[in-house]
Design brief:
Two copies of one chain form a homodimer. Chain A is an alpha/beta fold and 333 residues long. The first copy, chain A, is 41% helix and 19% strand. The mean pLDDT of chain A is 89.
């Protein structure tokens, strides 16, 4: 700083005021300001952010603490969105994973606090209720893809609007003319937040139209399980007209089982799904799917953390439908 | 620290020695050590790492600077591996993306340097030659999935062993009994590092066995392009016995085109691929694929950065083959 001041021919405080953006308060001439900036550039002056942050307590870093988000190829986009928003706000992003282990989590958060990160994103791979770690309760934190039980939220949560997604799935089939033989393929576990919300949306929309869900083909979230379950159901005499798959991987398994069963998509059976992963566009016919907006979830979480403060609450991000070629009007027998 | 010392009934230096792990050098009694540790815990004492790092110049943070690695669902595993290794070494991980823009890159690295990160991982999504940014040349840095031209490397590079992967692909088909009708499906651009190395490996292994590659079905790295190219080739009279696909997505497109052409995998046509992404196990029949070890690349890069120092050089990580059900012996016509 002294070298900059000497080169610019100003006092050390003048140089300091200019380089910390306080030249207007201090009535420093434009000419002096320009000389300081030029000198700083010529000397490749870099303020010691660590030393400064000891005084200001601001490091312009945030930490994203997640369970296993980086391990999931699709949810990794949430990191990408968070990163983009952090950079846009002039912040850098630490990431850390806990594998859902509270001891690891506590240690990791302590390590971040030692490095005096300004704020936290607390993220989950699947939308779910969580308990916020005690260390984070009094700090700036936004929850990404998770939320805290309780009537009055103390923190922001950014989650996908799964309920509306369920409505959309059902409405899409109704609009195509489906009124019977509509099955959900996937995990029927009411304990899973996304399943529960989507199912509520599906039931609600079908109910309003006076249509009954024909049933659930139970399987887990992976193609093999869906393939086995749909194949067995077809062998057992199931004659579906439309399948609502809980994600694109399940839809892939359903596609394989339907094809083996000699059923054409969408002529014999319509298929609609959730996620809109890359897979949806790769399947043949291309799969109509309701997008999980991972990137936007990450972006919005950081925006909420670093943007103008607002009343804490739950923000549900729209899950837009990507219409492709797997839904058609039912054939009349 | 003073409060901890008072509560433990020891001098300030004793407390300091205990909490910085120097109690053995300083012959401090076990009893005093226990009292200090208990007091520190009761007072929730946390050393100010930022202040300490101003003295020691060590922040125990590393930064992973990449082009677009977090955007790619598969390469995101490299981040996961890096993160795991960083944590294992007691370091925290910053991530940053440049989108391949040198100006963004320069700014980002400057921001990391302002926060005094100890070391860098310089990463690329595709294996390629890069120029190391000037700011990093004198610093601890390991290149992840990229390398620098030149006879004597000044930095470590961790890359996948694509050449051996090419050999493996060809050998697998030869061992199954294939000697003709072997085609490569994918981008024949010699400018792409992985393509070039694999192709060299394939040609070398086939050549040794006196077998000639029948040709290349040219397409880009995506399913649609591969589907179109293989479909057109079949229409034009191509009668392949085995396809070597440049990645699993290309294999997906090839599967679709072969099926449409009435060709069974592996009875009529064997298919082998590279990547071993999740897709490989989801396809039917399950796809034999040679794994791109993203997680290991990330892990090894950080290990090399933080582990015992060694002579700089290029480390090629093995690409293990995952044998599934898409390769069989050729049918005799």
């Amino acid at each position: 700083m002294l070298q900059v001041a000497q080169r610019a021919g100003v006092s050390r405080s003048t140089a300091s005021f200019v380089l910390t953006g306080r030249h207007q308060d201090m009535r420093i001439s434009e000419d002096a300001r320009q000389r300081v900036l030029r000198a700083a550039q010529e000397l490749d002056y870099r303020p010691n952010l660590m030393a400064r942050s000891l005084r200001t307590k601001v490091t312009k870093t945030i930490a994203l603490v997640s369970d296993t988000i980086a391990a999931d190829p699709y949810a990794g986009r949430a990191i990408h969105g968070s990163l983009a928003a952090a950079i846009a706000h002039g912040h850098l992003l630490f990431i850390g994973e806990t594998d859902g282990d509270p001891v690891v989590e506590q240690r990791l958060i302590a390590d971040f606090l030692d490095r005096q990160v300004d704020a936290f994103i607390y993220a989950s791979m699947f939308t779910q209720y969580v308990r916020l770690p005690r260390q984070l309760r009094e700090r700036p934190v936004v929850l990404l893809n998770c939320l805290i039980r309780g009537a009055r939220p103390l923190h922001h949560s950014i989650i996908p609007d799964e309920l509306t997604a369920g409505l959309t799935a059902a409405r899409t089939l109704l609009e195509a003319g489906h009124r019977q033989g509509i099955y959900v393929v996937g995990h029927a576990d009411k304990g899973v937040f996304a399943s529960r919300e989507r199912m509520t949306g599906i039931q609600e929309e079908l109910g309003t139209a006076g249509v009954r869900l024909a049933g659930v083909v139970d399987c887990n979230w992976w193609p093999d399980s869906a393939y086995d379950a749909v194949r067995q159901a077809l062998v057992d005499g199931l004659a579906p007209k439309a399948l609502i798959c809980v994600n694109d991987r399940v839809a892939l398994g359903a596609y394989q089982a339907l094809r083996e069963g000699g059923l054409a998509i969408p002529d014999d059976v319509s298929v609609i799904s959730f996620d809109d992963s890359e897979l949806a566009a790769w399947l043949r016919p291309q799969l109509t799917s309701i997008a999980l907006p991972h990137y936007e979830l990450g972006w919005r979480a950081v925006e909420t953390l670093l943007g103008p403060s607002a009343e804490p609450g739950i923000t549900r991000l729209a899950m837009p439908i990507r219409r492709r070629h797997s839904v058609a009007k039912p054939t009349v027998e």
